[in-house]
Design a protein that fits this description.
By secondary structure, the chain is mostly helical. It has one domain: Four Helix Bundle (Hemerythrin (Met), subunit A). It is built from five helices and no strands. α2 runs antiparallel to α3 and α2 packs antiparallel against α5. The longest helix is centred in the middle third of the chain and has 28 residues. It starts with a helix and ends in a 22-residue tail after the last helix.
Length: 145
């Protein structure tokens, strides 16, 4: 039963990623990192070291992906500040894993939640009709004079 549920979630997530715009992808990544941290907390409390480590590693990977997606040229000071925040989160997650520190996991989860709430607020200002025009599916060619 668990395997079937996990497969459904994987397909659901993949479908969401394929259909998502860049703003929605960031929302999904932030939520995914928070979900992995929540799972890691549960495994930490139960003493399941392997699963705790696996979920913290996934959370670190997600945060690293968020950091790597920053455009410092366009984002300026905000992107620089976010890069520092993501770096801090990664270090705190690593220490939480090494020291079984629930407080560090909670701290990073709170930071991610604050970011997601701010990101969600930005999304309410973005209009779907502001998307760039679609490219034609078939290229047009010109032959001759």
């Amino acid at each position: 039963m668990y395997s079937a549920i996990q497969q459904y979630r994987t397909v659901e997530t993949q479908s969401g990623v394929y259909a998502a715009d860049p703003h929605r992808l960031i929302q999904m990544l932030l939520q995914g990192a928070m979900d992995k941290i929540a799972l890691a907390k549960g495994f930490m409390e139960r003493g399941d070291v392997a699963e705790k480590g696996r979920h913290i590693s996934r959370a670190i990977s997600i945060v690293d992906g968020l950091r790597a997606s920053l455009d410092k040229d366009k984002g300026g000071e905000i992107a620089t500040n976010l890069e520092s925040l993501y770096d801090y989160m990664e270090r705190r997650l690593l220490m939480a894993n090494l020291k079984n520190d629930l407080d560090a996991l909670s701290e990073v989860a709170d930071l991610l939640r604050d970011l997601k709430e701010a990101w969600d607020g930005i999304g309410q200002q973005v209009k779907p009709d502001e998307q760039p025009p679609a490219r034609p599916e078939t290229p047009s060619f010109s032959y001759g004079a």
